[in-house]
From TrEMBL:
This is Sugar transferase. One of its GO terms (molecular function) is phosphotransferase activity, for other substituted phosphate groups. It comes from Siphonobacter curvatus. SUPFAM superfamilies: CheY-like. The lineage of its organism: Bacteria, Pseudomonadati, Bacteroidota, Cytophagia, Cytophagales. Residues 10-123 form the Response regulatory domain. It comes from the Bacteria. Belongs to the bacterial sugar transferase family.
Length: 392
């Protein structure tokens, strides 16, 4: 009977006391892959730099409570298991650690409790949580009274006046191709609120299944793939170890790949998806898109409060999940909108002017600085931008 073995867990061990560190390494160096640091600041910097720790063990004296509060405020690190070592086990320490978001606490000498069993339990639990597709960070977004007043009054009137156009477009869509008239798509808006975005259907009913097949045509994907021969090159850390083998090998889809290379490739992947002359679009759908009529049902989203007239475009789940780092999460601090700063700045200027980084920075700028007069300017600039020349 074969025995299943697992690679050692990667533990970020934070302990300013050198003697305690030596004792810990002597006891757990074989079953764990330990990276030792002496301060909470170093640990946070390493994690933000995407060090792939499976769990953190931090001494109470190393500002563990402050570390936990900062860590739990970072969406993509909020579920990382953290164990705090304390001088002595008592209810005061226990309550303080658990309230700050710690998973467990141990005496500094680990004389009580089975540490390895607890670590594997917490790591497995965090992995299961990460597999939940709808689990995303959430935070409250402030929507001013004037913005909501404008949204309700304008969209209510628009829906009444445009009802004949809605009926005509619905008839044309039904004649042009089989499928529903309204397309519902799960989108992530302000504060990571997930809702059903409404649009007139402009694509074939199997459009979502074709996204992966068309990834090579993504206009935002300007990063070349890592050549296969470079996937197995040793990084500086592996060379320094002196073992002449990769110290962080991953096995993904029957492929061996260095963990650092994998993380770099994941970081380089384009977050936004957009295609030129998309063959998935129907005949009537191309006209609806170029005239922006396809987006009119979103007036219903605005009327019921899912989004606003002006804001950052709500993103599909597969795009939003790539924008949870501190660098880009600010775009979700503003309300979602039908039109926005990015649309009136870039739309219709050709793909050579498009940049994923530019788009995100414009979204962040709006989230930070939006005001009544900024919204008015964007609305006025939206009308000439509705007629575009590019088929995207």
């Amino acid at each position: 009977m074969s025995v299943v073995t697992h690679p050692p867990l990667r533990i970020l061990y934070v302990e300013p006391d050198s003697s305690a560190s030596d004792t810990f390494k002597q006891a757990f160096a074989e079953p764990l892959n330990i990276w030792q640091l002496t301060s909470a600041e170093e640990a946070l910097a390493a994690l933000k730099d995407h060090y792939p720790a499976d769990a953190v063990i931090i001494s109470y004296e190393a500002q563990a409570i402050s570390f936990l509060k900062q860590l739990r405020s970072i969406p993509w690190l909020s579920a990382l298991p953290v164990i705090v070592t304390v001088p002595t086990l008592n209810n005061t320490y226990k309550q303080e650690v658990l309230q700050a978001g710690g998973n467990d606490l141990y005496p500094k000498d680990f004389s009580r409790g089975d540490l390895l069993t607890r670590l594997h339990y917490f790591v497995r639990k965090s992995q299961l949580l990460a597999l939940q597709p709808t689990r995303m960070p959430r935070f409250r977004v402030r929507v001013t009274w004037w913005k909501r007043f404008i949204d309700v009054t304008t969209t209510g009137l628009a829906l009444l006046l445009l009802s004949p156009l809605f009926l005509l477009v619905a008839l044309l869509i039904r004649i042009d191709s089989k499928g529903p008239i309204i397309y519902r798509s799960k989108r992530v808006g302000g504060g990571y609120k997930v809702f059903d975005l409404l649009k007139f259907r402009t694509m074939r009913t199997d459009a979502d299944k074709l996204v992966k097949e068309m990834a090579a045509f993504n206009m935002y994907n300007k990063v070349e793939e890592v050549p296969e021969k470079e996937q197995f090159a040793l990084c500086a850390e592996c060379v320094y170890s002196g073992k002449n083998t990769c110290q962080r090998m991953l096995y993904l889809d029957n492929e061996e790949v260095c963990e650092k290379v994998y993380l770099q490739r994941k970081h380089n992947k384009a977050a936004f998806m957009k295609f030129g002359n998309d063959p998935r679009i129907t005949r009537i759908g191309r006209f609806l898109r170029n005239s922006s009529i396809d987006e009119l049902p979103q007036l219903i989203n605005i009327f019921r409060g899912d989004m606003s007239l002006v804001g950052n475009r709500p993103l599909p789940l597969y795009e939003a999940e790539k924008l949870t780092s501190d660098q880009y999460i600010q775009r979700f601090a503003g309300p979602a909108g039908l039109t926005g700063l990015w649309q009136v700045t870039k739309r219709g200027k050709g793909k050579q002017d498009m940049s994923e980084e530019e788009r995100m920075q414009l979204d962040i700028e709006y989230a930070k600085n939006y005001s009544f007069w900024m919204d008015v300017k964007i609305i006025l600039k939206t009308f000439p931008a509705l007629i575009q020349s590019e088929n995207v």
